Amino acid sequence: MTSQANNPQVEENYYQILEVQKTASLVEIRNAYEGKLEETQLEAFAAYSLLPEDETEEKLLHFSQAFMTLANPIARAKYDDELQQGTVSVEMQPVTKKEHLTKIKKSVRVKTKTVPLPPLIPPKKAKAEKEIEIKKSVIRNIVEETHAERLGNYQKLSAKNELAEESLEEFYSTFKTHGGKLSYNGTILQQIRKIKSVSLEELAQITCIRKTYLRAIEDENFSKFTSEIYLKGYLLCYVEALQLPKEQVLTDYVLLYKNSF
Amino acid sequence: MKKKIWAIGGGKGGVGKSYVAGNLGILLAQKGHNVVLADLDLGGANLHTWLGVSNPIKGITEFIERDIPDIKKLLIPTDMSGLRLISGAKDGVEIANMKHTQKRRFVTALRQLDADYIVIDLGAGTAYNTVDFFLLADSQIIIVIPEPTSIENAYRFLKNSFYRQILHNSEKFRMKSTIKNILRKDNPFNINTPKQLIAYMNQLGGNAAVFIEEQQQLFMPSIILNQVRSEKEKKIGVAMEKACLKYFNLNVKISGYLDFDETVRQSVIDREPLAKNSLESVPVQQLSIICEKLLQEEKERTKKNNLLSQLAL
């Protein structure tokens, strides 16, 4: 009936999935993700009893993956390079690194350019324009700062993820020796986070999700979430940041949520 | 002007069918139309109470059982000019299982009434009875509130209505047994939704494809979203349109929104229809907009049907 139905195989890139510009800021990306969660929630509600549940789940996985990639400065830069080149290959990596460098240099140059030069501005117009110019540069500074900070945060996190591999394995094996099957719940998620020595604050910074929601996930305080879709949307980011098996955590945890009614 | 029948249904009880039907009837009468309100909420009819008509002594049963063969004699005047009522108050379960011919006879009689508009308040449920009256109307209106149960019932109502429509119309195309087979719950074609049915018929091609195309065109109910509490909830209307197209392959249009309003409940308790005295109130203003929209949609439909019949000649 529609053209979309005719070619469902058209792959959208992450920017298209979240409907943001390639130059979108972190705030814009975060808002776009929340917007998508809301949209999914609305669609699922309006199509109640018609929409198969896996379809919603698949959509959420799409959105969260797009969001977590674009919110992660390292992953985003890599993804942008991949996009530009069509596909990735191992040999190309040094080239992409170089491009990356020139990109950074460019952005530095742009930044210095925006510093207003008072003598060049005619006195009458000066006030308003100056104010705009200052506002712009303030915003840019914040973005630059957080960008550097974010880069650091992600590097720290990936180091922590890596370092904790062994102790995590030990943690998992204690379940096996007790003969029980591991089923993810709030307490286990919290234990894993602590094993990785990632604080809630760090996690909040990384995922752009408010600490109260992250804590609610660990406390299984389901009343915090307006719907299952928000819960899943946030949980997916939590899981992604700590590099846990997405599908299993989602299945185990959502079962807890559903049984709580 | 040819008289028009508007039917108000929607599956779930307590979503405001009687409220909308009653007030739309009053608004149409206020526009100078001659209106008959027919209370077909058989078993739960109460429009009379709400309109201040006490305990009607005659109703639809008398007509169906031919005690009163003249439908005009069922008309009960109200204290609003241009508005009369046909009550279903005395009618219970027996009448809720009318034969299709009886229903036809009733609707044919309704069309012969001296009235411009006949507004039918259908009961809750998606039983054949309700669905059949719904399908016999010119404007088919479904009331939904933003709650999962109401939404689910609305889809069930739509699905049953569409199935029922094609079953009724299949005889002309000599396809009754085919359709009957497909509509069986354990049909071998694994068809569970109108969309699958449409796809199957199109695959059959020929007469079947022509038939189903025509039935899709013919089926065009409107939705009114009632008890809307926020802008977010309002978006459910358009989302339902999209869902109907996506999962049923059917065109269902949203015709308007009614905000949740405490005064509505009070008006029902007080038995004071809002459209009667509170013309300036928000609920009545919103109902007026919907009324205009429905009149407009009806005009377009008439135009389209005239054009189609001209082409057929």
Automatic annotation (TrEMBL), chain B:
InterPro entries in the record: P-loop_NTPase, ParA/MinD_ATPase, YlxH/NBP35
The residues the entry assigns to the signal sequence are none
Task: Determine if Nucleotide-binding is one of this entry's keywords.
Answer: yes
One Gene Ontology term, aspect cellular component: cytosol
Q: Tell me which Gene Ontology terms the entry assigns under biological process.
A: negative regulation of cell division
Tell me the protein's name: MinD/ParA family protein
What is the organism field in this record? SAR324 cluster bacterium
Keyword annotations from UniProtKB, A to Z: ATP-binding, Nucleotide-binding
UniProt cross-references to Pfam families, sorted A to Z: ParA (PF10609)
Q: Name one GO molecular function term.
A: ATP binding
Specify the superkingdom: Bacteria
